[in-house]
Give the backbone structure.
Amino acid sequence: MTKWVYSFGNGLNEGRAEMRNLLGGKGANLAEMASIGLPVPPGFTITTEVCSAFYDNGRKYPEDLRAQVDAAMQRIEGAMGLRFGDADAPLLVSVRSGARVSMPGMMDTVLNLGLNDETVQGLARSSGDERFAWDSYRRFVQMYGSVVMGVAHHHFEDVLDQFKRTLGVIDDTAITAAQWREVVKAYHEIIHEHTGQEFPSDPQAQLWGAIGAVFGSWMNPRANTYRRLHDIPASWGTAVNVQSMVFGNMGDDCATGVCFTRDPSTGEDVFYGEYLVNAQGEDVVAGIRTPQPMSRARAEEGQHPMEMVLPDAYAELLRVRALLERHYRDMQDIEFTVQRNVLYLLQTRNGKRTAAAALKIAIDMAREGLISKEDAICRVPATSLDQLLHPALDPKADRVQLTRGLPASPGAASGAVVFTAEECEARAARGEDVILVRVETSPEDVHGMHAARGVLTARGGMTSHAAVVARGMGRVCVAGAGSVHIDYATMVMTIDGHSIAEGDWITLDGSTGAVYLGRVATIPPILSDDFNTLMGWADSIRRLGVRANAETPDDAKTACRFGAEGIGLARTEHMFFGPDRIGHVRQMIIADEETVRQRAINALLVFQRDDFVSIFRIMAGLPVTVRLLDPPLHEFLPHAEAELAEVATALGKTVEEIRARCASLAEANPMLGHRGCRLGLTNPEIYAMQVRAIIEAALQVSDETGKGIVPEIMIPLVATRAELEVARRAAEAEISAVLQERGAALDYRIGTMIELPRAAIQAGEIAHHADFFSFGTNDLTQTTFGLSRDDAGSFLPFYVDHGLLPKDPFVSIDREGVGALVRMGVERGRAAHPGLKLGICGEHGGDPDSIAFFDEVGLDYVSCSPFRVPVARLAAAQAALAHRKENASA
Ligand code: ADP
Ligand code: MG
Ligand code: MG
């Protein structure tokens, strides 16, 4: 007989935390908490296998499920001394969904299940609180009516609002038993009106209705979309948790709350969260009343922290907090209820956190001995470091503060205000900076939040949807700014007399919660000690070297500041575009007289040498790979009338002649045209000038600093052995000439990009003339797929959305295709030339998944944009640890 049902609480815990696949995250952790002695109301979990069986068998349950559920219900009844459906002492339960990973789109929880017109009387008698009983009943009818029977939420809200207006009350807690009774009656009528059905009064019918709704929600469109976006297979299924109710709405010695064992925004080791007295379930996040802080330390003037209001339960919660952290060895996100001063735990999970918090918590926990350094390294998502490197508001900048909300997700962001996720996405796609402003957000807004620089909400707390999602995504968020009033009809918001229309700019400071008018200047982030500590630990573990792609002094300095161990790619063409240079470049290309041409080249030599001198100085002896001119020459050609005239004057030609010459240089397919080493071979004087500039600069800086500069000269777009052989010979001739003129000696390397499939295949031949290879994975991806990276935007997203490609191959390396060529290049290159140095310098050099691959194939280093250097250092350490683990288990 298959076991479909696992009990927890009251001494029988059939599940464990490791059984998340079978019991879902919520169910597994409820059992785990109960098994370590924490106060968890007893209940049971119907496994994810039931969900799969349900769908495999035409939406029918396994035969023996009902008997197992009945037995588990009886166990709860025994534990609580109550009977499900009993008119005198009714057991009430919650029905909660819970997949392996928390998933929006799944059925909302139904509380107080088991109430009807009779049992509500029993509850009133047994609790001695009639108001509480009817409050629970109205909650149940509303939840069941909307969640299970599909009557839109707002129908119930409208009735309640109407009631409150007539009665002249604002707060739910001021409504009496008799009044709630009227509301319940009205709710029953609404349900009948909208569904044509009676509200089910039989508790067994209620229970199976709710269970069916959970399993049904697994295949609803929202859940399907979410699964598709997050690669969650439909076969996983969801579990259902049925749990005896505890009541936070029984009076002023009762409460409900959500909290984190540490601050999820900063990582500080303080208890953090919100609670509400005399409330139930989602009241805290729903924004019906303003939640109160947990701790005195975090309370502001006029607030009522739980520490003061419910000191006993708070003390108990502190004990639980320490216990849970020690047990799970991670920061926890807890849901709890206090019933008549007694604490109950309803959920725990590893808490979502900002990058800054992840970093601080990892370092602190390693120091506290809760986790190892290796664990700490793996606890911080490499890409999230990006957020730490983001700007903050310039303290000296002028500003007009509009209001203040909750500091829900740190960082500073400015942008145009928009009020819908759709508009947000549309504007972001056009390259605009946008701030999404909503009363509150829901899962439908997630795509808009992703496109936004920041999110501002009028309602909701630190644990509201907006706050949690924004922190997870690394978006700036200010939540619950109560003075923000949004009129979706006119697309205008007002804040204390200021009227702000769609498209107007505001600035958010997610670290303080402040909202400012217009754009406020920002300053670069300051790297914390924790950041440096983690980087140090990562460096001691990683095998891969990390360099940066940089050619300007600013980029080189940033690269050094972020710990780059050299420059893996300095693109010389970027130096050709400066206003003082482009004229010479144009003359060099267009001139037909040798002397004129050489004059332009000589002028460029001076600029290039200065460029290299400053880079070599900044890099202070670290390796620098300089790539010789790569793009098609016509990219530098003049277009505007004034530019044409300027070149014409300089060369003593007519504008028409220049125009004709430019036209003759146009190519049908320039990315596959006259570029890379093809240029250098047909115009040897250009490469000769660049080589000379590099060598002269290296000599100069070596002299200056006493550090031996070893320049690495890289020849791009090589396809054949002969190309590299000839280009290398020419470069060496120029180098000898320079060294002879100077009577100096210098160590140098000459290598090539491997960025064409032919080069990867012929790597064994090419390696004979190379001191190093650098895989140019952008071009290699482009040429392997035959896919122009400049044109892919119009169809690549379709490919990814429809599963034709797992990911954008320009973002994350295509292991099977492009990756196979890299692997071939590595193996053939090393076989022919032991000691050949191998790196990669495409965009993939900063992508953690790709970095794991490069570690696996045995490259020596990755090179990425300067801001990605910390990401790459951490990702390289994580890759090394993953390989260690694989080897250990192999
Ligand atoms: P979600 O996955 O949306 O967090 P939950 O199943 O955790 O949904 O439940 C939502 C709210 O209902 C939580 O705040 C939780 O504390 C409360 N809740 C769930 N079950 C019970 C119960 N048995 N007794 C009291 N409150 C409950
Ligand atoms: Mg929950
Ligand atoms: Mg290239």
Q: What stands out?
A: The mean pLDDT is 93. Residues 594-619 form the longest helix (26 residues).
